[in-house]
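Researcher: Next entry in the queue.
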Amino acid sequence: MRKTITVGMDGSAESNAAAAWAAREATLRGLPLTLLQAGYEPTPRTHLPEIDVPAEREDRALDFIGRRLLADCPGLVLVPRRSAEAPVPALVAAAESSTLLALGSQGFSSLEGFMVGSVALDVTARARGPVVLVRAGERARDERAHASPGTGSAQAPFRRVVLGLDLEHPGEELLSFAFEAAKVRATSLTAVYAWRPPALRPHGRAGDSASPAEADTARNATRLSLAAALRPWREKYPEVAVMERLADERPAPCLRLAAEDASLLVVGHRADAGTRLGPVTHAMIHHAACPLAVVPHSP
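Model: Structure for this entry, 299 residues:
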């Protein structure tokens, strides 16, 4: 079993936000946190201050962020690690050997989000372990419900976890990750399945479309399938309150809206899809308002 959380560090605001999120997650789960700086090559000293000072500052960046994380999360066990291996293969390997890998994500951009970051996208598509993407500016209080008067945000309950589910390929790894995330946060889980009901046909006309009664039957059958997919996990995690949401709309807008008041959005990536991310996962990488977990799972 994977016994560490890893975060990819490159000194950017996004990776610093991912490190802060990963530190909180490691504290919740009682796991050590590995700070991985991939593609690291020590800079030879030249005895020229204009060159050596910036290089020394870069070398110490990992230590600096480590001290800040320990100040924010007392008791956290940190494992700084530098690797000369190129970032993508190093991070892909780390994802496979970790409980989860956290990466910074540039998120929203003027080009419909396509500047999310080539490393983050490549790693997410290739990883065989869960990857959580965190935007710059993500704060601890953002994942909590509004605090009551007189209480700090750290004592406020976590916002819900939202799971985007595909009933044709639900995936045990995906369900397990979502329920465990809700459990460690002591919060609820909302399982969302977006489907398109059969098109209705006017009464008395022949055709291939469904009648209102047939559409209701299809909706009820889908609702039962959603309940059946979640039932074993409800039994395994009785402490997690589960809400089932069957949405008659396209998946991406539905999940994007659901994530607006979530602490974490969880979506899947089918292992047999290779390095191609599905359109819903791709859309959430660009547009989800909260940290996004992409969990590879068997078909």
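Model: Residues 108-116 have pLDDT under 50 and may be disordered.
Researcher: Noted, moving on.
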